[in-house]
Amino acid sequence: MAHIKGTRRKKLKKRLSELFHSNYVRFGVILPLFFLFTVYTAYYYEKGRSIYSIGDSYWYFLFAFITGVVRFSPATFWGRAITLLSSVVRICLYGTILAKISSVFINFQNQRDKGLTKLKNLTKHFLLCGWKPDMENIIQAVLSANTDLTPDQIVLINEAPAEQIAQIRSNPFYKELNYIAGDFSNEDVLNKALVGSAERALIISDQSKGGTQLEIDSRAVLAVLAIKSLNPSIYVAAEIYDSKFESHLNLAHCDEIILTTEYEHSLLATASSGKGFSNVIRALIGTDTASGVSIEPIPIKFYGKTYGEFAAEQNADSSKKCLLIGLLLNTGNFLRRRRDAIREAHKNPNVETVINNLIKVKTLKSNEPILLPDDDFALRRGMKAIYVKVKEEPKDETADK
After folding, report:
1. Alpha-carbon span 321 to 324, nearest angstrom
2. Which residues of 242-259 are buried (b: 16+ CB within 10 A; e: fewer)?
């Protein structure tokens, strides 16, 4: 018991010693003492000359200390000396305070530029996790594909050198980009990026730290797990090199998986046939949003109707400059899709049918495309239409003449 009391006493002494040696405590003690010294010294030498009461002395020096204006004219040498000393101390004090405030703001700006501060007041934003050498082109492509996004709604999360981030932000168009430095698979880093209020996230194959393709893919899987655990309702798309990680991403409920190597190999294989497949693919998935493949929501009035009825109406109007080619199933957030599917499965009165429907729910595949389905294929909530759009060329008025 005595040992515990001795330990507490030592801790108390240590805290008091630290408190006494604090600059703020010294400032809080010395400044009032100096103010009292100037007030009473000036009153002692100027009494009956320029100061007639101790209250006047308090008022004159308080007013001078705050505004820098001396409201009385000292008549004695020591009165002038103490007034001058008070002015010098005030100037030094104000300079110190301004320097401290400036250093706080500069330090905060530096921390923000380096991506070390937590974001504030940001909702429904877009997380872009990872780094590649052509990052500026990727950001531009993201903005082109998402017309509802602005640079101030994008948050970069990576471990790239600060100079490269500063180079991107030097472009006036990208100066409002948000940046968080750190490992995008770390929960603390994701919380700084306000992942809980984010709407979408894109994880690209991170090349900021080097490493093998296995390490890069593993980091992407960990990032999806972390993001989904912090915000189950967020839409996540992840890029990986090796298809063996696809099953892990599916288990993590990743909404969209980009198999870079597989796409590259398929593109090279189709190009080897000499039939121009690569040019067709470029036209379909290029950055020109006015043409190519487009995913659009299905009007609610067609829910419960067939694909044939929907296609007949959509393809009847030739002025639309687009052609319906299929459907995209199970779109949107994974948890919401599963919840809707379970609700639909329970609507059937047949127990065996309900069980079979629940089994199908477990095997739901995110964003599953079906090209040219049968005409009797039933449309339901969670589906979207796949179109091929054609950019309308401007008319040449001189040709008619």
Report:
1. 10
2. eeebbebbeebbbbebbb
What is the identity of the amino acid at 352?
E
Which tens digits make up the pLDDT trace of 83-103?
888 888 888 887 887 888 888
Say how far apart CA 103 and CA 113 lie, in whole Å: 15
Distance CA 154, CA 227 (A): 16
At 87, list the tokens. 């002015």
Q: In the beta sheet, which residues pair with residue 236?
A: 201
What is the rounded end-to-end Cα distance, in angstroms, of the chain? 108
pTM to 2 decimals?
A: 0.67
Tell me which long-range contacts 85-89 makes (C-beta under 8 A, separation of at least 24).
Answer: 85/38, 86/38, 86/61, 89/34
**Residue 391 and residue 290 in contact, taking contact as beta carbons nearer than 8 Å:** yes
Half-sphere exposure of 2 (CA within 13 A, CB side): 0
Backbone φ and ψ for 303, nearest 5 degrees, come out as -65, 130
- Crossing angle, helix 162-169 and helix 77-113, to 10 degrees? 90
